[in-house]
Amino acid sequence: MLLQLTISNFAIVSFLELDLRKGMTSITGETGAGKSIAIDALALALGERADADSVRPGADKADISARFRIDKLPRVKAWLCEQELDEQDECILRRTLSREGRSRGYINGTPVPLSQLKALGGLLVNIHGQHAHQELQKPDHQRALLDAYAGHHQLLAGVSAGYQHWRQLNNERKQLQAEQEKWQAERQLLEYQVAELDELALAEDEFPELEAEHKRLSNGAELLTDCQLALNVLGDNDESNALQLVRQGLKTLSELVAMDSRLGPVLEMVEGSLIQLEEGHSELGRYLDRLELDPERLHEVESRMSKVMELSRKHHVPAAELFLFHQQLKARLADMDHGSSRLEGLDEEVEQARENFVQAAERLSQSRQRYADALNKQITHSLHQLSMEKGRFEIQVHADASAGFSPLGIDRVEFLVSTNPGQPMSPLARVASGGELSRISLAIQVITAQKVETPTLIFDEVDVGVSGPTAAVVGKLLRKLGESTQVLVITHLPQVAGNGHQHFFVSKSSNTDNTETRMQELDEPLRLQELARLLGGNRITDNTLANARELLVCE
């Protein structure tokens, strides 16, 4: 429940701090005094859209804080825990608004986006505005109201999940069907290309190896001649060769080292060179022994390379990349095959998902009908109390799976009413009398609010168009509602205000420089004065005071 509301520099409020209690709180005041300002400020703290014009003239920013008790609100505590926000027995929502239009939100001192502020605010407060009857005429709002009254959170979640699953599979099937049609011509070409490359069967690194082998085979004669020449120079020429010369040099160096040891490192280097030269000479000899001219193999390699180059030009890819291109075509064809296989199995999956959704939607529809029947009786009874003795109310739930699916099910919910005997049931939107519409809307709001889990309910002049004995009934209904939840009521009716457990009076004062709104909690004598004012205007008499005393409901 809302414990405290603190408002600073908002609209025509300089500073205001309200301490609120459980039960029904009445808020009254003269016309234009700003009775709704506190509610507008609270709405900002709950994440509603802000307007920079809301900042009090001359101030830099507006600051609104709302402190709630949440120790008995498990949904709120669970939400705070999920969002990793401080979770205690109390919760403070704060909103600041600068003159430049910058807005900031806080939950328990932690900066949060306004979306989080609004999400938490929806769990804490439900505001019924003076134009709520206009919303009640909309079918979507009627369905939402019935679901909120019935507590259909889990059923709605199941229906929504079923709808999303069916829609996802259905969209996938449509996409695959469209792709299959588009793929028909492409598939024929793709199959031909893959078959042609399969026949070539080019290995991953085969083309670079073919190039190297072709270069070696085509230069075989030159390799034989030059290798023999190199062997002669290195060591096969009997008259003079490199090995012979190096050995002679080593012999001379050995003698020099005996005379000067500083030449030892040079001797070691030349000895290492001799070893390398001998190994090179031996390896070259073995290579030459294996080297053969192979015209037949050269022809095979040239033929293979010719086929590779031909397909390379045909597909406009470098020969070295032909293998990768082949793999890409095969993968594309495999995707098409997988799409075809997937499409064959999707029909059954879509139908099963559709059946699951319809079953969940039908369970929701049946529950809606049960709660609609119970709500019909309660609202009709309430209409009789509100001076509509012959009024009848009915919620019709039309379930039609063939009309289309939605995340909210398959139902069309419609509020119907008949205000006079013999008059047929008609949609709520067609009720002619504004006063009747106000009373019907009020009855619906009060009764459905009893089942909604929101701990604080605010009624902002929802009793417009109600007067006399009917107003007294409205007051009693709101007071009874206040016994189970916190209720704040902005009203101009003394019959309603007198039922409050707590009463605030809103006043406005002006001078040449500024205008300011104040709110004062009234004790019993002051409440009598205010009720008398509401009854008789500014002229308070013994009679209006006596009438006020009759209207005041004490603890």
Search tags:
555 residues; alpha/beta; six-stranded antiparallel β-sheet; six-stranded mixed β-sheet; 17 helices; 15 strands; 56% helix; elongated; DNA_recomb/repair_RecN; coiled coil; P-loop_NTPase
Structural summary, described in words:
The strands form three sheets. The chain has a six-stranded antiparallel β-sheet with strand order 2-1-4-5-6-7, covered by helices on one side. It has a six-stranded mixed β-sheet with strand order 8-12-13-3-14-15. A three-stranded antiparallel β-sheet has the order 9-10-11. The chain has a domain at 202-336. It has 555 residues and is of the alpha/beta class. Helices cover 56% and strands 17% of the residues. The two termini are 20 Å apart. The mean pLDDT is 87. It has 17 helices and 15 strands.
